[in-house]
């Protein structure tokens, strides 16, 4: 019988992840050299290390990020090949994202299983791993993060909860019958992950002085207090996403999360930092430098906004030299977004601005969530609060290393907080976080300066003749609203796939998700 990706399969832990910190001098890393294919030798610390890397590798990989969400958010633009810029999305991208997400989820669920099994829980809590309850809490947070990513991409998906026995929430249940799990509705998934984050955060607040997983935890080095803040900060994001659908529930979680503690500075940011050495470099570096690819440049939309030529801020943004490089002529020039194939290669990589050195570093720290976003969420919740808006802009500038004097000058030039100005700045701060930027564009419709169907994206004069190139999507009329379900689901889980499509709408990129309807 074919084994489902949802079913426990004793998946070999990612070898790249096991080698990820091999050069570290900490003696605790000796365990990662043990055979990962032998269940008795697999520690929860090693599983966490692998799962974190699997999770971040997946959401920021070349197909789902560089060719997907970073293009949907119009941070980047393609030259030579421009089909994905115009929303011709290969269904294989969905297959890869889906499969790798559930592999990470299975590893996270294995941590919960080992810490819940009476015969194994004492061994699971040995060494630097920490108590069973705290390990389970951190695994629940990362599972909530992964499932939110999945449902924001596809809508209804197979889901698994730790604390809720709902029959629709058993995707990772370890039974032979679970080869083809039902899809849970996005509404139920959102409601449950809010409760999962609340419960996990409450556990970690109770034991906030403790350390769980130690240095095997790349994100927070095992600091319970920071994991609790992350859980509550994620609740702000998720509660905001569903406010128009479930306002009372949204507000209750938002208030509770604020009361219990969210990010208050960049020191709290949830970041997975890669290494400068192969094979553990950051995804963008691997896609561009390692593969020597230069067919993705910073879009003309983002460059023009940062130069103060587009949008509501009329001075140059000090993040410009960080986000992008100058072209061969010493200028910042964005690649026109979404050109037809016949025009896409007319500008070469030396004519336009490529991603900045800090952004494209091998040891870049990929952000799961940061203080700037939290500040913008609070500003929105408080009816576009001015101080929270300033806090968000300042935090973003500080994170990217902008000099204090330049921060003061830029902040002084900001227009007053309102819906457009706050969301425009939030968009600029989410650069490199294409998954979240794409979701916010779908939720809010901002920023309004993004390219739309029929807009002229490049006016080129050659041989005395001027040509206007317009943006024309190949599918749909605007930014994709979701991605296709993986083709494999139609062969291994057809009945549940069909039920999901019937409940949600056609399996294409123009179907609105529940929170977006």
Automatic annotation (TrEMBL):
Keywords: Lipoprotein, Signal
Signal peptide bounds: 1-24
PROSITE patterns listed in its UniProt record: PROKAR_LIPOPROTEIN (PS51257)
InterPro entries for the chain: SusD-like_2, TPR-like_helical_dom_sf
SUPFAM superfamilies per record: TPR-like
The name this protein goes by in its record: SusD/RagB family nutrient-binding outer membrane lipoprotein
């Amino acid at each position: 019988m074919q084994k489902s990706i949802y079913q426990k399969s004793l998946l070999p832990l990612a070898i790249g992840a096991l080698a990820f910190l091999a050069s570290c001098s900490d003696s605790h890393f000796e365990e990662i050299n043990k055979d990962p294919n032998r269940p008795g030798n697999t520690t929860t610390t090693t599983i966490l290390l692998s799962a974190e890397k699997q999770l971040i590798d997946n959401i920021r990989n070349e197909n789902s990020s560089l060719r997907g969400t970073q293009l949907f958010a119009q941070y980047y633009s393609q030259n030579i090949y421009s089909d994905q810029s115009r929303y011709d999305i290969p269904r294989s991208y969905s297959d890869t994202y889906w499969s790798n997400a559930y592999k990470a989820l299975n590893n996270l669920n294995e941590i919960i299983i080992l810490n819940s099994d009476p015969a194994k829980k004492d061994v699971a809590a040995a060494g630097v791993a920490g108590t069973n309850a705290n390990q389970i809490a951190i695994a629940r947070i990362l599972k909530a993060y992964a499932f939110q990513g999945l449902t924001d991409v596809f809508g209804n998906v197979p889901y698994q909860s730790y604390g809720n026995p709902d029959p629709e929430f058993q995707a990772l249940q370890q039974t032979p019958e679970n080869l083809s799990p039902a899809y849970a509705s996005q509404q139920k998934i959102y409601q449950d992950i809010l409760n999962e984050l609340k419960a996990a955060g409450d556990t970690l607040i109770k034991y906030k002085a403790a350390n769980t997983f130690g240095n095997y935890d790349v994100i927070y080095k095992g600091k319970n207090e920071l994991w609790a803040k992350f859980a509550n900060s994620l609740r702000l994001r998720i509660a905001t996403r569903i406010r128009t659908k479930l306002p009372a529930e949204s507000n209750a979680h938002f208030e509770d999360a604020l009361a219990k503690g969210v990010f208050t500075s960049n020191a709290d940011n949830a970041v997975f930092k890669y290494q400068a050495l192969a094979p553990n470099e950051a995804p963008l570096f691997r896609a561009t430098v390692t593969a020597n690819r230069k067919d993705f440049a910073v879009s003309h939309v983002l460059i023009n906004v940062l130069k103060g030529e587009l949008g509501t801020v009329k001075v140059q943004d000090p993040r410009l030299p960080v986000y992008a490089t100058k072209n061969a002529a010493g200028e910042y020039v964005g690649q026109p977004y979404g050109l037809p194939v016949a025009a896409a290669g007319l500008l070469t990589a030396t004519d336009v601005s490529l991603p900045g050195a800090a952004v494209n570093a091998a040891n870049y720290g990929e952000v799961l969530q940061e203080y700037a976003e939290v500040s913008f969420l609070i500003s929105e919740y408080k009816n576009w609060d001015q101080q929270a808006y300033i806090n968000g802009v300042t935090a973003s500038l500080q994170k990217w290393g902008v000099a204090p004097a330049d921060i003061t000058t830029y902040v002084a030039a900001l227009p007053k907080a309102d819906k457009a100005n706050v969301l425009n700045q939030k968009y600029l701060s989410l650069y490199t976080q294409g998954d979240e930027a794409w979701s916010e564009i779908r939720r809010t419709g901002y920023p309004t300066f993004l390219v739309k169907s029929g807009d002229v994206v490049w006016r080129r004069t050659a041989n005395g003749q001027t040509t206007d190139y317009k943006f024309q999507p190949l599918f749909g009329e605007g930014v994709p609203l979701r991605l296709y379900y993986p083709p494999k689901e139609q062969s291994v889980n057809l009945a549940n796939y069909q039920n999901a499509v019937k409940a949600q709408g056609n399996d294409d990129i123009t179907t609105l998700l529940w929170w977006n309807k």
